[in-house]
Amino acid sequence: MKLTSYGAAEEVTGSCHLIEVGESRVLFDCGLIQGSRKDELRNHDPFPFDPSTLDAVVLSHAHIDHCGRLPMLIDQGFNGRIHSHAASCDLVQILLKDSANLNARDVEFRNRKRKRAGKPLLTPLYDQKDVEETLDKLVATPYDTSVKVAPGVSIRLYDAGHILGSSIVEITLVEGDESRVVVFSGDLGHRGSPILKDFTCLKKADLILMESTYGNRLHRDWSETLLEVQEIASALSSARGNILIPAFSVGRSQMILYTMARYFDEWGLDRWKIFLDSPMAIRASDVYLRHVSLYDEEAAAFYKKHGPLLSMPNLSFSQSAAESRAINKMESGAIVIAGSGMCTGGRIIHHLKHNLWRRDAHVIIAGYQAPGTLGRQLVDGKPTVKIWGEKIAVRATIHTIGGLSAHADQQGMLDWYAGFTDRPPVLLVHGESRAMQALAARLSDELGARAIPASRGKSTDLLALDKFGQ
Question: Taking the model in full, what pTM does it have?
Answer without folding.
Answer: 0.92
